[in-house]
User: Fold this.
Amino acid sequence: MRMVSFRNVLNLRAFDPSEWAAIGLVVLFALILRISRRHYRWLAEILPLNSESVPTDPIDCMVVIPARNEQETIAKAVSSLPPDTVIVVDDFSQDATAEKARKAGAGVLPAPKLPDGVLGKAHACIAGAKLLTSRWILFADADTRYEPGFLESAVAVAESSKLDFLSIYLRPEYRTLYESALSPFAVMLYFFGVDPRSDSVGAFNGQCVLVRRDPYEFVGGHRVLLTSLCDDVKMAELAQRHRMKFAVVRAPQLGQVRIRPRDFERNAFRFTLGLR
Assistant:
């Protein structure tokens, strides 16, 4: 009687090396996705305040938005925040960023001349913060925008938890087909490389950061971040070193941030840290 092999019974054939490589990539991708989602969901979520919790008095918080060539996004960022709370620091834009920010209701400050070896964003943040005396300062990227009540909710969480620094992850937004294809992968790599439960410093993200002004000035503010490529992580390290209280949260219901392919390099760097 003719013997039938197990492979013939299952009607399978041997895979060549390229097929095994493809299978391995699919498995790796699924693993990275699973870990990334788990890391993201470990972040506590800020929810909108209910009507009874909304403060009746204006909150003591101002917003600094450093912006360079952000004419497509700056007006939405400014107009989504409470009136008369936003200072846009125009970091030598070559487009209509300053004009659109003014029309949206922001005060606009030209950034000072950039010294050699200094990064523009931190330098612009210094210029904006110098003008403020508010108890709280929100440093926000120009490609963010917020739902009504965001600022009140963020300050309420920081006050109730007695925080000095609060990093807030907003809901990712993709506007073009190219961004929709590539940017989610960049976000996935970012959260694969960052575990908020074991590394809150590494998870600290500078796209939307609320700081209490006095502790912020005590650690040196953005002056000590002028040459740091990961200025947000450096800020968290300083807070930790001085035993100040900081936290990282998510607020998908309260704001959005545009994720662009240009963010891929930074997120890939976080991915490599996660492999160590």
The first strand starts at residue 44 and ends at 45. The radius of gyration is 22 Å. The mean pLDDT is 86.
